[in-house]
Amino acid sequence: MTKVTMTINGKEVSGDVEGRTLLSSFLREDLRMTGTHIGCDTSQCGACTVHVNGKTVKSCTMFAAEAEGAQVSTIEGQANADGSLNVIQQAFQDHHGLQCGFCTPGMVMTTAALLKINPKPSEQEVREHLEGNICRCTGYHNIVKAILAASGQDVSTIAAE
Ligand code: FES
Ligand code: FES
């Protein structure tokens, strides 16, 4: 076992991990931070997306030990300080950007990364940025609409589906 220490959502945490322990497993099983979902464990679905040192990472593709000393952000750290939904989460709720919700934590983390580098993305740019996140329920239309709304763009002419 190896001791690993990282900062998650602004709080320093430590744990003992095996070399093979994935970051996703460390978050969910060791820290009980189950907002990060595991849909495939094979790097395809994006449900496990977090940010590591400001970069979007599928946490099932990285060993926990590799995050030694890193700044990690997860869905648990996305709400506003008063506990209310942040602008992205609120837009997903307002525009029905989820059904079962399984993909949603990853979608929110991916969206946060997109809006940081591209605060007013086009619909095409949103769709391209979601390439690594699979949703089996929504058909993506309302997710894209929610993301455009979260970026402050007028979505009133986009029909709900
Ligand atoms: S669980 Fe990591 S990409 Fe699917
Ligand atoms: S809302 Fe069910 S997988 Fe996306």
From TrEMBL:
GO terms assigned for molecular function: 2 iron, 2 sulfur cluster binding; anaerobic carbon-monoxide dehydrogenase activity; metal ion binding
SUPFAM superfamilies: 2Fe-2S ferredoxin-like, CO dehydrogenase ISP C-domain like
Keyword Chaperone carried by entry: no
EC number in record: 1.2.7.4
2Fe-2S ferredoxin-type domain segment(s): 2-78
Enzyme class of the recorded protein, top EC level: oxidoreductase
Record-linked PROSITE patterns: 2FE2S_FER_2
Signal peptide residue numbers: none
Swiss-Prot/TrEMBL keywords: 2Fe-2S, Iron, Iron-sulfur, Metal-binding, Oxidoreductase
Keyword hit for S-adenosyl-L-methionine: no
Record's protein name: Carbon-monoxide dehydrogenase small subunit
Gene source species: Yoonia ponticola
